[in-house]
Structure prediction request, 791 residues.
Amino acid sequence: MATDIIMPALSPTMTEGALARWVKAEGDAVAIGDVLAEIETDKATMEVEAIESGILGRILVPEGTQDIAVNTPIAILVAEGEAVPDAAASAPAAAQPATTTEEPAAQPSAVPATPAAASLSAPEPEKDWGPTAEITVREALHDAMQAELRRDPDVFLIGEEVAEYQGAYKISQGLLAEFGDKRVIDMPITEHGFTGMAVGAALTGLKPIVEFMTMNFSMQAIDHIINSAAKTLYMSGGQMGCPIVFRGPNGAAARVGAQHSQCYGSWYAHVPGLKVVAPWSSADAKGLLRAAIRDPNPVIVLENEILYGRKFPCPVDEDFILPIGKAKVEREGRDVTIVTFSIMVTTALEAAEALAQEGIEAEVINLRSLRPLDTATIVESVKKTSRLVTLEEGWPFAGIGAEVAMQVIEHAFDWLDAPPARVTGVDVPMPFAANLEKLALPQPEHVVEAVRRLI
Amino acid sequence: MAAAQENTARVGGNGPSLTREQFMDAFHEMLLIRRFEEKAGQLYGMGLIGGFCHLYIGQEAVVVGIQMTLKDGDKLITSYRDHGQMLAAGMTPRGVMAELTGRATGYSHGKGGSMHMFSREKNFYGGHGIVGAQVALGIGLAFANKYRETDEVSVAYFGDGAANQGQVYESFNLAALHKLPCLFIIENNLYGMGTSVERASASHELWRNGEPWGIPGKRVDGMDIAAVHEAAAEAVAHCRAGKGPYLLEMMTYRYRGHSMSDPAKYRKREEVDQVRKTRDPIEHVRQILLDAGVSEDSLRKIEDDVKATVNDSAEFAQTSPEPDPAELYTDVLLEA
Prediction:
């Protein structure tokens, strides 16, 4: 049977090309793989190979022809002894451009609204977990891992110095003794490799907790966090979930300079397929880490080294857990909403205390979760206070504050009495000198000033 | 000689060999991959497959020979040149081709494409577009085998190009350190995109690249299915016995460009023709079967079957609907 040889698409972007040269002539026998012609694309000159064998019955497009659209018949291939049909008869049978043979393409209007555009429901009140005890954030994180390691044999902890050394920051103290080296596993200094390994294990359904000595070192492994962990569920059409936790201290510690002092909140919160939490208190740390370990998705837990030793009340209930995606109003107020997370909650509360001395009542929202973001709680608060200040340790450009402000603009613009303001770390790499480091980080007085400017 | 005996008798000359039955199966599998890939190239030319599309033509003996040594539960992972691996793993030509054309009936509902396909059912873990990432992920699959105390093995395929990635050596170290049941396969087709292996690697014996970690390795003629099978059987047995990882360098060749838009000017056409004429893995098996007394007719029947399967997959891939617009927002996160 005669078949058309069509002008092939030879690159992802090619729509037309030139027929540089016919290598075969009319009447030539053609075997699979033989070069028929040379085609010039926008990128290069390519050889077109035969995909079926036969006789080159007729050349429809002479060499030297420019601007031949992809899918135009350029020759007719016939079987041996077969008559060559007329070009005119052949043309209607030619393959049509892909766009016309496919199902009607989705029109922009047919695209469903993004979840973000859905109307916000009022925030639910937080569950009361009863009696509390004062514990450090370090103990809270430890207790969360211990409880989940006991609860689920598929959970294991890997990282540098997590086992025999008992944790670089002593978060995993005692876990090796209780769970053994099968489930509390020291890793060599090889973040790219062991993160990939943990993600591979998670794709089979195991539930690794990957401890980075600091989140700065997660940069060595960010390809696996984003390209392998966050995207595989989507790329597999829902077949391959990745239940994994990446945790470690984030942001500035003290006097460790530029490469060890950076907030990755905005980096990771940017990525669909990841959840990102940033606990402040012991209750946040315990409740959110337990939720992160149980979550069937990759979750980034941004801890803070300075907070590790701080004590906060934490519910003693054995089942205590917090939902990911719910912010907490740490202090109520009517005049301004301060939205922040992690160690900056302390700074915000100090600022609120100072503002109260001046008769300004600030509401302080501890985000707890950066993705998903609890926009409902933020918007509810701004509708009451009509003013927004965001506060974060990270850099200003494309930071979490920018996203929070945009959410408020989208959902509560008419309630605002002043433009939103942001207080952030200074837009420089972290300096080492004590005085410069302090200048680079937000202080309570910066927040107080920002609020004063709005009122 | 009775027919039953004939079917189990080893054929194929002096070297490592397989039974006639195994050669017949291999012929079918390899031909399926070849014809499928030719069809994919054809659909690409028609604009029905878009984006990147990396064909496996020429390398068929590698994946088919290795697959013959595996058992249910063994896990597979590879790079973006993944169509052959998927077909060998038992994924359906229809599902793979429909994913290539971006249709709802594809393995990833049209959201993965040529480079990103998976099958939980067939233990195929992708299909990865980042060169070398599958090696670290692959030792994770092996880690899971060990953690669950099974005797399952994981196979991580990568090319000579990926063999220069740092994470490959991090993975060698971790796999050896933890004695992970991971079979590393370097498919050395001589070119990482347009750069020949000599211009890319100071090591010219890639099979020895695991030596610092004590990983045993071998170089294998990847165009000879029996040689592939023999080496893989030994390597898989090593991994399954809990002796840790194993590295095989398969010397192979891709007939087509790196991707569809590669004019392949970095090598001479005569080089490609020479391999095709003298080392083609499928023609090699065809000759073995003919020499063993298999009739031309029975081979033609296999060819016809394969052609029908491939045409069916192409028809399916062209007539299946595109994904529903609502599919855009699904599978980002699982319900907690």
About this structure: The domain at 328-454 of chain A is CATH 3.40.50.920 (Rossmann fold). The two ends of chain A are 83 Å apart (CA to CA). Residues 88-109 of chain A have pLDDT under 50 and may be disordered.
